[in-house]
Design goal:
The protein has a three-stranded parallel beta sheet with strand order 3-4-5, with helices on both faces. The chain has a two-stranded antiparallel ribbon with strand order 1-2. Helices cover about 50% and strands about 10% of the residues. Helix 2 (about 15-30) crosses helix 7 (about 135-150), helix 3 packs across helix 6 and helix 8 packs parallel to helix 9 (about 220-230). It contains ten helices and five strands, in the order H-H-H-E-H-H-E-H-H-E-H-E-H-E-H. It folds into two domains: about 1-150, no CATH class; about 150-255, no CATH class.
Length: about 260
Amino acid sequence: MRANVADGTFGAWDETGRYTQLALLTGALDGMGYGESLGCFIYEGGCYLPEATRLQRELEACVRQPDGEETVPARAELLRAMSGFGWTGGWQDVPHPHATESLTAAAWRQRVPLTVHPGIGYDIVFVHPTARGAVLGRAAGIDFGVFAQAVSGLQGGVLLSVGSAVMALQDFEKAASVANNLRLQQGQGVITPFVAVNDLAPVDWDWSKGEPPRDSPAYYLRFCKSFHRIAEEMVYAACDNRTFLAGHWQRLRQDTR
């Protein structure tokens, strides 16, 4: 990384950035978010690009119809990308060598919601020439709505946070706030899920005793504190993420036999 950052090439892998953007651009035409667009792209082995002339006609028609305005930005972004990068219409064949092992593709196949919550600048896809904030933001906005909808049904449910010290808890607390706001307006109680948090950091505080005092270093572990303030009960497991997931999966399989 040191050498690649110094010469300006770190993260500059063409395929990852280009195909991610292509998936999000075409997925947006069908109202899909980040996770669903990628899942479809991987599972199908590519995507279909409409002809530029057709896109132009559809854009003009959408502008003239008030109920068609929602699709205008997605179509305009795709048309801009096709023009700017020389993409032609038709099927874009992008076979994924490990599609059968892809969690994202499996979620698409099983119609299980899988959401992605990017922070622009976090990942290598954001340095690609095709990357556009409008495309990424639209996909992420759709996914946050999907996630908040799922969180609203967590009353009596279980949440696992594995290996995320920042993103998972930040997304969850905002989604929980939205969910509780709507639930209270509908005369329902707030969500009180059971939360299990797994990370590598050792934690010397027993969260079953409540929140640690401010003079304790554990007080500043947001990946525990934020979940603890929302959950009915929260437990923390300090271990390798792979060990935690593999062990959890094995136990679930044993319990369902």
